């Protein structure tokens, strides 16, 4: 008969085998085949057979807190590629030191639930080439293997810097933003090696930057831009809308209304900067004046960061729209924290800090 000690010794390799099997079992989003990949190495191992099998991979980069805007990009990717990879990573390098990195919504469990439901929808839709195959959710030490370089304007490190596009509009207010975006997107593209990448029109300057990065650095990927998803009242969906709270949410469509007023001028035949921008500024200023007449516990205040009329391929300001090329009307407003918050008032995520909202409308070229 085996001694107790002997039987324990015999069990040990079995225990080791089970443990290493557990270690090797691929992490997935529960009740789905969607792999959760957390390291560069894991993505590379997953990617190689797809490459050898000539399977097309589409990448949808996100910072999580998923909403319908993200889902529209994932749906587009599933229609056109065999394997959709969604990256979820809040990249500190694109946040300025005084920006909202610490409070940025992180909703991993809800994101997984949303992706599970979307994957079922995609499976039932015969029109798709592929499904969501993987979520890439790395840590900062994985994405910055030499150490995180910092969020300061003068931080030293390995960055992708693109000028002058990074210096204007969004980059004017957020001087490290596009350096951070270009750097992280270059890393994501190098890791996933997607044939196609999907970005939202809501962040129009980002799409222009990414297209330029792909062109200037000869990256073997195609950039696809999906339309802006909106709430019924025109507000562009954005992960940051959760900061607004009820009072500011009602006023937040002002930016879209301002841009629509400008678009109406263009559609009526105006091409000069002054006529087009005047219409947008009038809506923004009139709405603010109306708010100022309200009692402090009702009103909402905001600052107009910029309202721009720019060239669609460079984002340089235009004095006149060439109808052959069209233009981009874009803007940013900073919704200030509400005054005289009332007991029980919904102030929004994280106590309702200032929220910067962006939006844009394409002035279509006439054919
Ligand atoms: N309303 C939208 N419609 C279409 N695409 C969108 C929309 N909002 C975001 N996207 C796109 O989704 C991708 C990931 O964006 P991100 O995760 O930053 O979401 P976000 O809502 O833009 O968040 P934030 O509030 O931080 O700007 C980007 O390509 C972005 O342009
Ligand atoms: C493209 C992106 C995921 C890079 O971090 C981010 O800028 C975003 O979510 O738009
Ligand atoms: N969607 C843009 C990401 C950012 O504002 O940081």
Q: How would you characterize the overall build of this protein?
A:
Helix content is 39%, strand content 16%. By secondary structure, the chain is α/β, with parallel strands linked by helices. The chain folds into 2 domains: 27-226, HUPs (Rossmann fold, 3-Layer(aba) Sandwich); 239-363, Pantoate--beta-alanine Ligase, Chain: A,domain 2, CATH 3.30.1300.10. A 6-stranded parallel beta sheet has the order 1-4-3-2-5-6, with helices on both faces. A 3-stranded antiparallel beta sheet has the order 7-8-9, covered by helices on one side. Helix 4 (108-124) links the parallel strand 3 (83-88) and strand 4 (131-136). Pantoate (PAF) binds next to strand 2 and helix 7. It catalyses: (R)-pantoate + beta-alanine + ATP = (R)-pantothenate + AMP + diphosphate + H(+). Pathway: Cofactor biosynthesis; (R)-pantothenate biosynthesis; (R)-pantothenate from (R)-pantoate and beta-alanine: step 1/1. This is Pantoate--beta-alanine ligase. InterPro entries: Pantoate_ligase, Pantoate_ligase_C, Rossmann-like_a/b/a_fold.
